[in-house]
Amino acid sequence: MGTLQDAYKVAIINEIKSQNLYALLAIAFENEESVSLFKNLEQFEKVHEDKLTAIYSQAYPDEELVLDHSTVHAFQEKPGLEDPKRLLEFAINKEIEASDKYREIAEQTGEEKIRRFFLELSREEENHRDILEKEIHRLQGTMMWFDEAELNGLVEH
What we know:
Helix content: over 70%
CATH topology: Ferritin
Order of helices and strands: HHHHH
Strand content: under 5%
Largest sheet: none
Number of helices: 5
Number of domains: 1
Mean pLDDT: 84
Structural class: mainly alpha
Distance between the termini: 57 Å
Radius of gyration: 18 Å
Number of strands: 0
Low-confidence stretches: none
CATH superfamily: Ferritin, core subunit, four-helix bundle
């Protein structure tokens, strides 16, 4: 992980990347529901960035937060804008990576307050992943609007 200070910087950059990704998704999708969803997710990631920046400033009051902005728009893989499902899967993978990274940071820190904070961020990123998975199902028209357990009796006859 490096130092906790480095972990904060990486986390802040990742939150900015996520904001940029959701802004891109809001432009790439044409339906109003999806655009609203992505704008909301963009705002959630901004809240994460702000929380991380505030904690960084408290932890390192004498140090200016310097970020490598050349990495803000850079992803190792780039999704194609022409395939909505692929774009959503890309965003899901980024949420999974963020959740895993935050859990890793939480496990490696000795301070309980920091551990709880990063575990909460991890859970929030998992929630974002769930939201994106539901969006894929909604767009594909495969959302189930019933409880599968209700069908057990129907299938047996």
